[in-house]
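Note to self: keep these together.
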Amino acid sequence: MNDQVFDGPKGRCGHPCKGDGRPCRRFITVPYNTCSGHLPDDVKARQTSERTPAEVRPSFEEEYAAIEPACWEWAVSDADLAAARQVDEALADILLKEWQRDRCAVCGEPGCGWLVIDHDHQTGLIRGMLCRSCNTREGGCYGWGPFMKYRKRNPAEILGLRARYWDPIRDEWAKPAAPPDTPEDRRKYNPLIGIGL
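Structure:
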């Protein structure tokens, strides 16, 4: 097998793609450190003839859980940290965009100007800039793997930035979410209480 090491983001292949030569963004196949499309022919032939038992192979969940957010690999300078301490809340998104260099904090893909500001709905604080795909998956049922790790240590945490999210729809600063209702609250404010049902 070729011993050449390619410099792709953690968990990604990084081999040059056919045609345009850009680094491959597909997930690596353990233990070959390359995606299935870039495996040498002899390895592909051996894999089909000698299948590893399923209990020995890492599952998709194990491989996916091992992937770290791209922002964990980015350098943080003293100037970045100083700027984060002094930045005005209204300019926090600009500071994040400059530090992230127009890249998504989870997948590392360039956003081409289409990054969105991700924020924590529980605290109302900005977490980082994500591509639309990662922002949708982060808020949905994909709250594990790199997304769970991103929530624990996001670009705002890395830089020490604490800024509230400006909600463009409501035209106001985001407020922390209300604490969850208790059963007593639900009974107290139930409109059906007292109507004889």
